[in-house]
Amino acid sequence: MLDVLIVDDSAAIRKILQRVLRQTELPIGTVYEAGDGAEALETLRKQTVGLILSDINMPNMDGLEFLTKVRAEQAWQKLPIVMVSTEGAHAKVLEAVERGASGYVRKPFTAEQIKEKLAGLI
Amino acid sequence: MTAEQDVATPIAQSELVQAIRTATHEVFSMMLNLELTPGEVFVEKEEAVPASGVVSLIGLAGPWVGSGSLSCTAQFACKIASHFLDTQYEAMNEDVLNSVAEVTNMIIGNVKTALEDRLGAMGLSTPTVIYGRNFQTRSAGNQEWTVVPFLLEGERMCVQMCIAPNPDSAKKAPRGGFPIPHVLQT
User: Fold this and answer.
1) pLDDT tens for residues B154-172?
2) pLDDT digits over A36-89, tens only?
3) Is B31:B106 a contact under the CB 8 Å cutoff?
4) Which chain B residues are within 8 Å of A15, Cβ to Cβ?
5) How many helices (H) and strands (E) in chain B?
6) How far is residue B183's CA from residue B186's CA, in Å, rounded to a whole number?
7) Which residues, in sequence order, are CB contacts of A63 under 8 Å at separation 6+?
8) Which of A60, A72, B66, B135 is the most buried (most CB within 10 A)?
9) Cβ(A67)–Cβ(A39) under 8 Å?
């Protein structure tokens, strides 16, 4: 089973992403949620997940800082992390990739776009 | 190059309107499966808000500063949430407010991305959603709001923005090597 961590300060987006995950053919197990990068790191230290979907613009700790901290840990270097964000500037996408993002989906997104991105990763 | 030449070339109102229309259409068609009809654009000196309903506000900051907002009736907000979350909402609640906040975030966020090539990188605040009756909102400053209405099944929603050069980025020292004393700063 694939346990997933969704990181977004929008409860609505977390609901939507969870619904989309359950519509994929992936064997989705437990879906954990976090409202910012700091909360997500706490969750990662307690739970083992096989996929992370993370926003960028969040209070407390943003998605890029969260990404950097995750990739700094040996155990999490190969963990698939897909950024899901309104930030669409090329420089921002490039920064996410340079910090270790496995993929990037812009908001707004369709369920198909999320499914296609995950199919290429998992 | 003088300080005046450092200020970014202003964007035309038509560019702002196009960016708002494109972003709103994308969000509503891709995530809510709703097709909006664009209405006639107008300019307001003060933010156009309903006497009652929902207003969702986001700030922008950088070389340009401003605000963006989405305003609609409570019924329209419930329609947004129902389509966004694929669940029927008949009355305002936390899910409806969260949905309006995120829809606003995506619309204004995508407008920001569209304008950043011209205006420079901008930061976006987290949205604030206000719901109630007989309220007014005011933003400090003297900028005009570009209001872009949209119609859906006889109901109206407005996405509006005001944006202007950041006055702080135009400040300069009187001469190189002489910092402005705090007592002289305006």
Assistant:
1) 999 999 999 988 887 655 4
2) 999 999 999 999 999 999 999 999 999 999 999 999 999 999 999 999 999 988
3) yes
4) 85
5) 4, 8
6) 8
7) A7, A37, A54, A55, A56, A57, A83, A85, A96
8) B66
9) no
Q: Are strands B52-61 and B128-133 parallel, antiparallel or unpaired?
A: antiparallel
Amino acid at B42: F
What is residue B186's predicted lDDT score, i.e. its pLDDT? 41
B143 inside 8 A of chain A by CB:
no
- Is the ipTM above a cut-off of 0.95? no
Structure tokens at A4: 């997933």
Look at residue B180 in the predicted model and tell me its pLDDT: 40
Integer Cα distance of B138 and A30 in angstroms? 45
Task: Using CB atoms, pick whichever of A9, A12, A19 lies closest to residue B99.
Answer: A12
Residue A25 C-alpha, separation from nearest chain B C-alpha, in angstroms:
20
The answer to whether the CB atoms of B30 and A109 lie below 8 A apart is yes
Which CA distances in Å does A30 have to A2, A3, A4, B184?
Answer: 7, 5, 6, 60
Instruction: Record the pTM.
Output: 0.88
| pLDDT given for residue B173 in this prediction | 42
pLDDT digits (tens, 9 = 90+) for B28-80: 999 999 999 999 999 987 666 666 899 999 999 999 999 999 999 999 999 99
CATH of domain A2-119: 3.40.50.2300
Give the per-residue pLDDT at B49: 64
pLDDT given for residue B93 in this prediction: 96
Domain B11-165 class, CATH top level: alpha beta
To the nearest whole Å, the CA of A40 is away from the closest chain B CA by: 19
Chain B contact for A83, CB < 8 A? Answer: no
